[in-house]
Write a structure and sequence with these properties.
about 550 residues; alpha+beta; D-Maltodextrin-Binding Protein, domain 2; Aspartate Aminotransferase, domain 1; 3 domains; 5-stranded mixed beta sheet; 4-stranded antiparallel beta sheet; 20 strands
């Protein structure tokens, strides 16, 4: 498996050292990995290199696949990437290089490259927090020679460390990936922006509180650690426990409940700066131009302010989960059919909303336009530059919108939901107690530590020597309905027949021993809230009889 020579960003001065070490020595073209948005190919000539350089270099004919974000290849940015590659070629007239350009954002590099390392670009840009994943996938190479020395000479140690692992350098820095606070200078003085508590006592502050990437730094500021004291000890893990963490959590609760606090989700912080409803927001260099446009002469930028926890000032600063519910009739609540997806992560929320709205990239609601401020000035995929962002599709999505009638049913169900939960718990506990003493034949369900579930059903796994099929057939013949846990080994279903025969379409990690066990030995009985104690007792009696029959 070949490794890739990689740069976070290329510069003309460093491109020589970077590109010289990569590429194939044949004239064949490398295929871009799946996930590339667009590609274009150009042959770079050589006109101005010195005779001495030409004499030192052997003849090479090759193709290099180079990826960058679309904006670095756009005409309004001077086709930066193409310009750098052409300049490199001009300085090396003996190297006949065909540059194969592809589009891949820095944040997407890890996923795109690791999906197909062999098919990925020879040179690409990546966000530095992707580095360890790229190394693990063998998708990146160490830099050497003059390039290493120039990286060290032209950057601070902190920047060098951001592209280094165990003393080896894996990329050429281009921009710093840090964040800070933007603020309206007409609302706060230079002294006031030094402390967050002082600011929020005076005016509206927006912070991405639902994004754990940011809020982690609150805990680190109060003595908690991420991967050890210096952030490099993976074995140390995350230490967000004890009184220090509790103090931060209490602080964050108070912060969110402050009437001057605004949760920054889906661009609300930037929108607030534009309309004056927010006076400060936390973000990075990626939002600089938009913030400057919004604030004009009142544009202010400052390092992160301090916070006060238990009377001591600490520095503020800073990943996401998805929940789903099914509204199928037998489930906890129903709207007739369908389901819901929910998240507290702004990015995931954007993706989810896009998926249920045909895959649309735009987050503007009906009747709303240009929330991002870039409706007509960006290029997406292979669409023309300036194509209306409101009608750009970044996913293969669906038209999944609940009707008003379904929503009304859902609202009525929510009102009844507490009683549903309590009845399910009651039915589960009664059935579990009625089946006690059968642990030599059955594995009965147990709640995870520190949990009190609202049970979907009662999951039973037959132990060795107990035939699930016989148990199920017996209880079904006596009016007790059962269901398989169809989340067992899904690849055994007929829909996988063709893929199994061809040996492609999916992959299996491990031997799936427990998955097969569930498929073979597990079944459900219900705890539906409409069942009474007599029904629950009858179910337990019937299951006991089924076991006695074996």
């Amino acid at each position: 498996m070949k490794k890739k020579v990689v740069s976070i960003m290329m510069t003309a001065a460093l491109a020589v050292g970077m590109l010289a070490g990569c590429g194939n020595s044949d004239s064949g073209s490398s295929n871009a990995a799946s996930g590339n948005d667009s590609k274009s190919t150009s042959e770079a000539g050589s006109t101005s290199a010195s005779a001495s350089n030409a004499a030192e270099e052997e003849e090479i004919t090759t193709t290099l696949t180079v990826w960058s974000p679309s904006e670095d290849q756009a005409s309004d940015s001077g086709e930066w990437l193409q310009t750098m590659c052409n300049q490199f070629a001009e300085e090396h007239p003996s190297w006949h290089i065909t540059f194969d350009y592809g589009v891949c954002a820095e944040s997407d590099a890890k996923d795109t490259v690791t999906q197909d390392v062999e098919g990925a670009a020879d040179v690409y840009m990546f966000a530095n927090d992707n580095l360890t994943s790229l190394i693990a996938a063998n998708g990146i190479s160490k830099l050497g020679g003059q390039t290493v020395e120039e990286v060290k000479e032209n950057n601070s140690q902190a920047i060098v460390d951001s592209v280094s692992v165990d003393g080896d350098i894996y990329g050429v820095p281009f921009t710093t990936n840090t964040w800070f606070m933007y603020y309206d200078k007409s609302a706060f003085t230079e002294d006031e922006v030094k402390n967050l508590d002082t600011m929020i006592a005076k005016d509206k502050i927006s912070f991405p509180i639902t994004n754990s990437w940011y809020i982690a730094s609150f805990y680190v500021a109060n003595g908690c650690t991420l991967f050890g004291e210096d952030g490099t000890d993976e074995a140390a893990g995350v230490d967000f426990e004890g009184d220090k963490a509790k103090a931060v959590t209490d602080y964050l609760v108070d912060l969110v409940n402050n009437p001057n606090f605004v949760s920054d989700a889906d661009g609300s912080g930037l929108s607030g700066l534009r309309d004056g409803s927010v006076k400060a927001m936390f973000s990075g260099s990626w939002d600089a131009s938009a913030v400057k446009e919004a604030l004009g002469d009142n544009y202010g930028v400052v390092q992160l302010p301090t916070i006060t926890i238990n009377g001591e000032e600490k520095f503020t600063g800073t990943v996401g989960d998805i929940g789903t519910s099914s509204f199928y009739p037998p489930h906890h609540m129903t709207m007739g059919e369908g389901g819901a997806v929910y998240t507290d992560n702004p990015l995931l929320n954007k993706i989810i909303r896009s998926m249920r709205d045909w895959g649309r990239d735009c987050v503007c609601a009906s009747g709303q336009d240009n929330l991002c401020g870039h409706r007509f000035d960006r290029q997406y995929g292979e669409l023309p530059l300036g194509y209306d962002h409101k009608y750009v599709y970044s996913h293969f999505g669906y038209n999944l919108k609940a009707t008003d009638l379904q929503a009304a049913i859902g609202c009525a169900q929510i009102e009844k939901f507490p009683s549903f939960v309590e009845k399910r718990r009651h039915n589960f506990e009664r059935l579990h107690k009625a089946l006690e003493g059968l642990e030599d034949r059955l594995i009965l369900p147990e709640a995870a530590p520190n949990s009190r579930p609202s049970w979907f059903g009662f999951l039973i796994t037959c132990k060795e020597g107990t035939d699930r099929n016989k148990v199920v057939q017996y209880v079904e013949s006596r009016g007790v309905q059962t269901r398989m846990l169809f989340a067992g080994n899904l690849i055994k279903h007929p829909c996988f027949d063709e893929m199994r025969a061809e040996g492609k379409g999916y992959r299996v990690v491990g031997d799936l021993t427990n998955t097969d066990r569930i498929m073979r030995d597990t079944f459900w009985v219900g705890v539906y809230p409409g069942m009474n104690d007599e029904m629950i007792d009858y179910m337990a009696k019937t299951i006991r009889e089924a076991l006695d029959e074996q």
